[in-house]
Design a protein that fits this description.
mainly alpha; Butyryl-CoA Dehydrogenase, subunit A, domain 3; 4 helices; about 0% strand; elongated
Length: about 90
């Protein structure tokens, strides 16, 4: 969570300085959405079968977090954007 926050703050600082942050923003989106997905998955694992029961808040958290990997470009789309921008930078 701390690493994601640092990535976002650095990208925001660069954007405020007028830099192009297309690659950085895709990296932030990919890293943070995947990290929160892993966190939610582990939280459900800790709760066991109760993690899937609607009576527990973790079930809703798990459902809500899933959309982060899809909204504003799936993780795979973000990987393509990052790769394309890195290849442009090399050439």
């Amino acid at each position: 969570a701390y690493a994601g926050r640092c990535m976002v703050l650095d990208a925001a600082r660069r954007r405020d300085a007028g830099e192009d942050v297309a690659t950085e923003s895709s990296c932030c989106k990919l890293f943070c959405s995947e990290a929160v997905g892993r966190i939610a998955d582990r939280a459900v694992q800790v709760h066991g079968g109760a993690g899937y029961v609607a009576d527990y808040g973790i079930e809703r958290f798990y459902r809500d977090v899933r959309i982060f990997r899809i909204y504003e470009g799936t993780s795979q789309v973000q990987q393509v954007i990052i790769a394309r921008n890195l290849l442009k930078a090399v050439n």
